[in-house]
Design brief:
The protein is α+β, with helices and mostly antiparallel strands. It is built from 18 helices and 31 strands. About 30% of the residues lie in helices and about 20% in strands. Helix 9 packs parallel to helix 12.
Length: about 775
Amino acid sequence: MIKKRHFTIVFTLLSITTHSFAQYQPLQLWYDKPAHQWEETLPLGNGRLGMMPDDGILRDRIVLNDITLWSGAPQDANNYDAYKKLPEIRQLLLEGKNDEAQRIIDQSFICKGPGSGGANYGCYQTLGNLDLHFSYNEMDTPIYKHYKRELSLDSAIATCRYQVDGVTYTREYFTSFDDDIDLIRLTASKPGKLNLKLSLNRPERATVFTKENTLFMRGQLDNGIDGKGMQYEASIQAQLKDGALSVNDTALVISNATEVILYCSAATDWKTPDYKNKIAQILKAAKQKPYALQRRQHIANFRKLFARVHVHLGNSAPTASSLPTDLRLKAFHDHPSDNYIPVLFYQFGRYLAISSTRVGLLPPNLQGLWANQIVTPWTGDYHLDINVEMNHWPFEVSNLSELNMPLTALVKGMVHNGERTARAYYNAEGWVAHVITNIWGFTEPGESASWGITKVGSGWLCNNLWQHYEFTDDKAYLEDIYPILKGAAQFYNSMLITEPKTGWLVTAPSSSPENGFYMPNGDHASICMGPTIDNQIIRELFTNVITASKILKKDEQFRDTLLTQLQHIPPPGRIAKDGRLMEWLEDYKELEPHHRCISHLYGLFPASLITPESTPLLAEASKKTLEARGDDGPSFAMAYKMLWWARLHEGNRAYKLFDMLIHPTLATFINYGDGGGIYPDLLSAGPPFQIDANFGATAALAEMLLQSHAGFIELLPAIPDVWKPSGEVKGLKARGNFTVDMQWKDGKVTAYRISSKEPRKVKVKVNGMIKEIVSQ
């Protein structure tokens, strides 16, 4: 009783009242005109199915997606003779002949076949298009007014409303979090005014037909072997109030209806052999439920995740709220003091996370869930040298922890293949993944030495898995992932070699994704020994496996081996003559001084090997590295730079990058250099659309408000000046499974609450002072 009384008194002093919080403006994207290109459409998704309507007046094209729809198939692209070349490659690297080593790798040490460019590797693809063709009293060009389309982030419902000839037409769309189906409700304000034709189409490998008032689209993708890859189906049924439904061979035709509810069910045979029956059952169940109930249960299920976090960063200019989202973005770029925009962008990132992945399915890929092409950029796969990891960075801190489980499942599926790859190329124990993977578990090197030989994909993935443990403190989960962590550590432990000049244990061959360097002979190369990112990832992985071994009380002998090896792993960073962090073991001149990747800052984020408190000299060198590389770049690079500046406690610099990141664009060309930007629908542009910058910047905005990697929870570690006047957040998560609420004024925390399932001691840094408290 005494302890309980002390606990209550402490948190009466520190508590923040829940009823004081308010979300000051609706969390919605809205526009006063139809989308003219796909990058203006509004994304809907329930973790499996996706929809993106363009809300045209005569034709509403709705792009459909299923996150499991992939071409390709499992393959073994390992070169089982590659390890025979390893001694020669390593000897050349020891002699400083990196360019010669790279030529051998290109010939004999990459994957067999075309790699990611081949049909067997596969590609994430669009499911197809649902086209709604409307007619209005035989008007070829209807005059419309009072147009508005919007997406409500806190209900995951999109609507469109406009008026033609005195009739108000309303469309409502959602991908149900209840019955796992796409639902579209069309209404007219006057009876009998809805006239439309529904059709399905896809650029290739699709058969469209009707049967018993149902519209079907079926097909089979190319597996790169015999053409008989993944099978899929989409089916549409309509429920009418008034009017009539008729069919032709490839379309449903609706005449003189007042209300139409469209049910769109789709699935693939990925892990679901009876997918056609599944589709039929989903359709039947959904149609038996009143639309209002379906809608209500969808919102309730979605909000179980979305409503966990609230953010308010201060007031905006009164006139800003009257602007459509695309115009408001342009206004923000000119006057970046509209504090609603970072809130909207942050919550949009959380919305995208909830909408693009689901426990038991797949993690968000380069496209998240949304693709409108057969050949998606970079195959829409999982890049392991930053992109898929960045996709998951906001999940834990933003209170969406369970959404990390699909990534864990994907990694589990890679381990067996990774063991074959480790033996084939390095004659090593454990498992390894290189730069790219797909749903089929590809772990081989890529098809080009310059980027494909990077071998820390497996170690980087282990960081994501470890972060989930750190935030949840879930010992059962740690037990489950321990074999994955151990296997990755076994690989690095068994393939490291001694660098003779320093005595350090390093990887060889490797590269620093994805930059190259000039050699003393004037040639250039990417292949090297022990790039800084490798050293950082291996140091972090070994440390985490040692910690896990102690917690789980197992593998004492292997733990001792790693403890010994750690003494010979290069430090987290070394400082070059110009004050920057060195990217390679040698102080090479980089091939691209403003390269989009700054891989050697991994130790600053996502790792915690470099912090201003524990390694101030390395933190300062990291600043100089960032300054030299510059702020611009494709969007994912700007998002990553936001995170690094936040970790360096430079809130204004991080906010400057946010302003650059959300520069409006409609560009769709493939960009590897400067530019970046944001599309009118807030999806990030590389360009083209790539979702990693949405997630990376979402994580950065959270890191500006809360950090917990340095041994304590820090409130407002990198708050920019524009947020300082006042603000409040509720529901962010800190490592150790703590939930954090706080309020501030003039940049100082005025109230906060740290809560957990059980009262526990925790260190908190508040307004520059570290104190130990007991969680609530």
